[in-house]
């Protein structure tokens, strides 16, 4: 059977040689003509003509003079964001968790698949630059009417078989660059999907950092409330002893018990939030909730970045993946204008058929049974109800839309950086005020505790002091966590880091090199962690 097929292919190749060579010659000419494509050539938008993010000269975060000391931060203007910016928090568990998340989170894998989809679509469109070749073999059995004498040997009526084998060649020269523009548009979509991967990577790493800081904040708030609860229990014992000795009324005991219960009431909601936060971190790491991550975070194990890079606006625009993605969409829309213009111009189609037909399979290889057809056609839309004209106008309007979305992305990016800078400037003063309030409230509560033991203050003063200290302690923890979160927000607003010059086929190796290996681990229900 394989020998028969080979003989058929060889015979068809000999019969189609002339038509195929003509089509390929036309294809080469079409490729040369394709270098002149109609429609506007894409010009990347210029960087914004600004050199700062705030109206005034940027000042580093400063706390008030004479107040309690808080960690300092310094803005470094013109410095680029580090590739692994999260290492500025100097937390090994955070580094491990980010590595695990980047390696296992399905959102990044989905973004990578989107890139492959776009690239294959662009490669498929490139196939239209070449002639389209197909083969066809049609065996048929026919019966001729008795009124005709068309059968083999002129006999009638007759039942006979007819075998037809042929090669089909068609080619549409890209005279006006319609396919060139279509490929250009799909290549821009591929580029846009790459920036979407960068955006997903930046979002994932920023979410992991922010979620870890939030966990540390919740643990700090729980610890602060537990300290206050411990103090209130000690005060309750003092009041009870005074009541037993006749030095306090029962209402004082009940008031202190109510204050203790109110403080304890704050713990379950925070513990629930902490459990939910742990589930979030586990999910970001690409693990099931039953396989809880081992890494735990507290505020004292997260360092505040002392030096914060503030890249120039032009560099930030080139770094932000959402802005670059908007630019790629603008490029794609611009190329579609050329596609719509070319659709309104004359078009040429070249077709060719070559093959053989016989009453038996063997006759396909005998002289006189071969045939070929070479044809060309030219078409020009004359009237279509202005359909193609309006499609061109729609494509031009899509460019205006994409341009407006790009400019909005730039404005939003500038706003994000400015917001982060403003927040960090205010955070330093807010943390200093919170520390001052906590120290004053604790000192006041300590004095009142001593006075209470001596019977020198009433219960109202004690209750007020407890509430003030509780609020101050929680606010101080939140202010400390906010400063860390806003530092991460600045890194994210500046576009983070991406391995642009990665020599490896796997970008993760370049993005995560020098970080510790991450192995998914499971926390057992009744024992130590198990692998």
UniProtKB/TrEMBL annotation:
Q: Which is an annotated Pfam family here?
A: OEP
Q: Per UniProt, which keywords does this protein have?
A: Lipoprotein, Membrane, Palmitate, Signal, Transmembrane, Transmembrane beta strand
Q: How does it sit in the membrane?
A: Lipid-anchor
What species is given as this protein's source?
Answer: Bradyrhizobium erythrophlei
Q: Which family does it belong to?
A: Belongs to the outer membrane factor (OMF) (TC 1.B.17) family.
Annotated compartments: Cell membrane
What SUPFAM superfamilies does the record tag this protein with?
Answer: Outer membrane efflux proteins (OEP)
Q: What is the protein's name according to its record?
A: Efflux transporter, outer membrane factor (OMF) lipoprotein, NodT family
| Main location class | membrane
Q: Which InterPro entries match?
A: MdtP/NodT-like (IPR010131), OMP_efflux (IPR003423)
Q: Transferase among the record's keywords?
A: no
Q: Tell me the superkingdom of the source.
A: Bacteria
């Amino acid at each position: 059977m394989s020998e028969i097929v080979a003989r058929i292919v060889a015979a068809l190749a000999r019969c189609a040689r002339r038509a195929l060579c003509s089509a390929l010659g036309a294809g080469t000419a079409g490729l040369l003509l394709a270098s002149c494509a109609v429609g506007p050539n894409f010009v990347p938008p210029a960087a914004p003509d600004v050199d700062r993010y705030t109206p005034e000269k940027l000042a580093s975060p400063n706390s008030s003079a004479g107040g309690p000391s808080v960690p300092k931060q310094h803005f470094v203007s013109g410095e680029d964001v580090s590739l692994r910016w999260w290492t500025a928090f100097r937390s090994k568990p955070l580094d491990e968790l980010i590595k695990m998340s980047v390696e296992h989170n399905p959102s990044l894998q989905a973004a990578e698949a989107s890139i492959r989809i776009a690239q294959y679509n662009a490669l498929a469109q490139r196939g239209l630059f070449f002639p389209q070749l197909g083969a066809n073999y049609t065996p048929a059995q026919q019966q001729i009417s008795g009124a005709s004498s068309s059968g083999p040997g002129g006999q009638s009526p007759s039942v006979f078989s007819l075998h037809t084998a042929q090669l089909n060649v068609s080619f549409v020269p890209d005279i006006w660059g319609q396919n060139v523009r279509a490929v250009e548009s799909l290549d821009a979509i591929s580029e846009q999907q790459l920036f979407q991967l960068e955006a997903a990577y930046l979002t994932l790493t920023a979410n992991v950092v922010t979620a870890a800081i939030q966990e540390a904040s919740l643990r700090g708030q729980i610890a602060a409330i537990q300290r206050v609860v411990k103090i209130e229990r000690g005060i309750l014992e003092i009041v009870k002893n005074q009541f037993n000795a006749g030095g306090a009324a029962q209402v004082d005991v009940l008031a202190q018990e109510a204050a203790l219960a109110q403080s304890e009431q704050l713990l379950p909601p925070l513990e629930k939030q902490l459990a939910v936060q742990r589930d979030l971190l586990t999910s970001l790491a690409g693990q099931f909730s039953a396989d809880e991550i081992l890494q735990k975070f507290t505020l004292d194990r997260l360092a505040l970045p002392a030096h914060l890079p503030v890249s120039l606006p032009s560099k930030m625009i080139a770094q932000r993946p959402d802005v670059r993605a908007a630019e790629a969409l603008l490029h794609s829309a611009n190329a579609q204008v050329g596609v719509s213009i070319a659709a309104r111009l004359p078009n040429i189609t070249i077709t060719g058929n070559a093959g053989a037909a016989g009453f038996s399979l063997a006759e396909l290889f005998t002289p006189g049974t071969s045939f070929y057809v070479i044809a060309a056609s030219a078409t020009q839309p004359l009237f279509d109800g202005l359909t193609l004209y309006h499609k061109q106008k729609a494509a031009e309007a899509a460019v205006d839309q994409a341009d407006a979305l790009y400019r909005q992305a730039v404005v939003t990016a500038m706003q994000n950086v400015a917001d982060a800078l403003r927040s960090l400037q205010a955070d330093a003063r807010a943390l200093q005020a919170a520390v001052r309030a906590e120290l004053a409230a604790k000192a006041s509560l300590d004095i009142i505790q001593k006075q209470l033991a001596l019977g020198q203050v009433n219960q109202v003063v004690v209750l007020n002091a407890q509430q003030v200290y509780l609020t101050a302690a929680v606010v101080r923890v939140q202010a400390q966590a906010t400063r860390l979160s806003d530092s991460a927000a600045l890194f994210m607003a500046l576009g983070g880091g991406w391995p642009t010059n990665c020599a490896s086929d796997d970008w993760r190796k370049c993005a995560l090199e020098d970080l510790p290996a991450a192995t998914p681990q499971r926390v057992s229900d009744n024992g130590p962690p198990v692998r």
